[in-house]
Recover the amino acids of this structure.
């Protein structure tokens, strides 16, 4: 036993491997591994277990990517709220119209379907401009104003110029500092005012619904070349479209929107409504274009390539 426990020579290394673990003992003249492994020193020897490393799961990488994108979006939302919400509304409006164009294909005549070359480029452009320049900015300012008139989370609107937060009695309340990522959920522990939730949702469905339908009909009519029929379209189709919007909102979207408004701060409500509006825009775009002439559908590439060529020619001529 004493021979087994004797100290080895300084120029030798003794090691033993057992199933399931690795135990290595180094002499004085041998450099120890530069790792951050857990180790135990016994009688001048250092015993350590191999560090186990595993590749992150694909689901973990995907969640990390989503978290990074969410962080970027939240930071942009904080620094450039109007621009961020407008671009988001424009992109999601295009997605909704793409669904609508897919819904229209079974209703096209066989002759028109055979000549169809894909997405209608003018419609795609029109819907993007509608979200970018009409519904996105207007929803930002409208939701801010609704929250000012009918605050859902009262303490969020009691911020003094020096940064202090006051309760209903005027006493200073100490609140934790949150960054842009936490801003969406920093109201989750507060009790919402459900009366104001219902008022805000009702205002959004009635007032903003009428406003956005008017913008959709106006912008798409002008860009798609139906401006000569704009007056008759408003006279014949506006209230029909508005009634369809109210029916969809009352039956499907209003309960979801109430839940979203009760959980999110005002900065993130536009995003929540835009996500819901993918289906709303799909239905409303389908109804709006139902009576229009779609026999001259053009693909998005067939529309954008001449446009880009024209812009390029003008730039060349100006130089």
């Amino acid at each position: 036993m004493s021979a087994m426990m004797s100290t080895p020579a300084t120029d030798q290394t003794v090691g033993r491997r057992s199933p399931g673990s690795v135990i290595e003992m180094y002499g004085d003249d041998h450099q120890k591994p530069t790792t951050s492994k857990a180790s135990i020193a016994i009688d001048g020897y250092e015993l350590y277990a191999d560090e186990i490393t595993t590749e992150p799961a694909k689901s973990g990488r995907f969640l990390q990517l989503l978290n990074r994108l969410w962080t970027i979006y939240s930071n942009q939302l904080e620094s450039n709220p109007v621009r961020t919400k407008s671009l988001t509304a424009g992109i999601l409006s295009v997605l909704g119209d793409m669904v609508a164009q897919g819904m229209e294909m079974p209703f096209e005549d066989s002759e028109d379907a055979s000549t169809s070359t894909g997405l209608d480029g003018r419609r795609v452009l029109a819907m993007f401009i509608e979200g970018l320049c009409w519904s996105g900015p207007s929803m930002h300012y409208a939701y801010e104003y609704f929250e000012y008139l009918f605050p859902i989370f009262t303490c969020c609107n009691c911020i003094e110029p020096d940064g202090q937060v006051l309760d209903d009695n005027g006493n200073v309340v100490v609140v934790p500092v949150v960054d842009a990522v936490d801003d969406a959920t920093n109201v989750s522990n507060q009790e919402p005012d459900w009366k104001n939730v219902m008022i805000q949702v009702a205002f959004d469905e009635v007032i903003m619904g009428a406003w956005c339908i008017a913008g959709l009909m106006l912008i798409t009519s002008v860009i798609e070349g139906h401006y000569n029929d704009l007056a008759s379209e408003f006279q014949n189709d506006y209230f029909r479209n508005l009634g369809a919007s109210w029916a969809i909102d009352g039956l499907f979207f209003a309960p979801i929107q109430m839940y979203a408004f009760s959980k999110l701060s005002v900065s993130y409500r536009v995003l929540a409504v835009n996500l819901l509006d993918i289906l709303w825009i799909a239905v409303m775009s389908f109804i709006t274009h139902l009576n229009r002439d779609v026999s001259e559908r053009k693909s998005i590439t067939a529309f954008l390539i001449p446009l880009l060529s024209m812009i390029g020619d003008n730039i060349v001529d100006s130089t």
In short: The first strand starts at residue 14 and ends at 18. The chain has a mean pLDDT of 74. The helical segments are 58-79, 81-104, 110-115, 121-149, 194-223, 230-263, 269-288, 300-318. The chain has eight helices and six strands.
